[in-house]
Design a protein that fits this description.
There is one protein chain. By secondary structure, the chain is mostly helical. The protein is built from 15 helices and two strands. A two-stranded antiparallel sheet has the order 1-2. α1 packs across α15, α3 packs across α7 and α3 crosses α8.
Length: about 300
């Protein structure tokens, strides 16, 4: 089999066919559509407009707002989602009792659907003129003698709504990256850590001098996953704030793509999708440059 590659290619052929039919071919069709004015799904041919769809996307104020909001969310994800996941992994790796309990507890949000999490947080954020019908967060505020807040509302400030939507997005995937980091930590040699203890290294010195440097390649992968995941985030923002309150200012790139497809035109949405892919490739390349692959690990 090592000499005759035909068998290997034969086994790989179904995968290549699947990827071409459901990934590469639709993307190429989408690139073609981005140069046409297609009003709806029944407009098969459309009218060739060149790069006008791309120009319209970049001129759209909603796109500017979505780009800013997604950039803010990306920073929050990298700092808090990836950061908390790393801290939790370092802590749990040092726990001998109930380690399985902690692993399962932190991973549970991943197995809950985005729709369920969105509905859960919408109940947390609920505001009502009737104090008894307020959500958990406003109930807590009332216990502290503070006024309930309309967390997600058309008459609420854009920054408050953005924060309210970002919190569940950040929380949901902490457990995913936690498991990745914890798996990486288990590959670090115990002899190395024991030798550092004999040399008088403190726990913090082990973290910053041994464990984090040895996780460099894993951190690189996690950051790329976090960036690309943020670019296409859709379910939670859509469920919590479908209309991008206030005044369409709180779209993310993923939710704006859906809005563009439904309310503007398919050709413009196709151009938007191509731009989104290019952003993902560009940001991934930049993160790979910043977090270089360490071949010595």
């Amino acid at each position: 089999m090592y000499k005759n590659k035909k068998q290997a290619y034969l086994f790989l052929l179904p995968v290549f066919i699947f990827m071409f039919l459901f990934l590469l071919f639709p993307f190429l069709v989408n690139v073609k559509n981005s140069f046409f004015d297609i009003k709806n799904v029944f407009d098969i041919k459309g009218t060739f407009v060149g790069i006008n769809n791309y120009v319209d996307v970049f001129k759209d104020q909603k796109f500017h707002n979505a780009l800013i909001n997604t950039s803010i969310l990306m920073i929050l994800v990298i700092v808090f989602q990836v950061g908390f996941a790393l801290v939790l992994a370092l802590l749990v790796n040092r726990v001998s009792k109930l380690q399985t309990f902690y692993k399962v507890s932190y991973f549970i949000p991943i197995i809950i659907s985005g729709a369920a999490i969105g509905l859960m947080f919408s109940m947390f954020y609920r505001w009502s003129p009737n104090p008894a019908k307020n959500g958990a967060i406003n109930q807590l505020l009332m216990l502290l003698n503070k006024e309930p807040v309309k967390w997600i509302s058309s008459d609420q400030g854009a920054k408050v709504v953005l924060l309210a939507v970002s919190i569940p997005v950040v929380w949901q995937y902490i457990g995913f990256y936690f498991v990745i980091f914890l798996t990486g930590l288990t590959t670090i040699s115990n002899e190395l850590l024991e030798a550092s203890s004999i040399d008088g290294a403190t726990e913090l010195q082990k973290v910053f001098k041994i464990e984090i440097p040895l996780l460099q390649n894993i951190i690189r992968v996690v950051v790329v996953l976090a960036i690309t995941g943020t670019l296409k985030v859709f379910d939670l923002p859509f469920i919590l704030n479908e209309q991008a309150w206030p005044n369409h200012k709180n779209f993310f790139l993923g939710t704006l793509l859906n809005y563009t497809r439904n309310y503007d035109a398919i050709g413009k949405a196709a151009a938007f999708a191509v731009i989104l892919v290019l952003f993902g490739v560009l940001l991934s390349a930049i993160s790979n440059i910043i977090f270089k692959q360490n071949d010595d690990i």
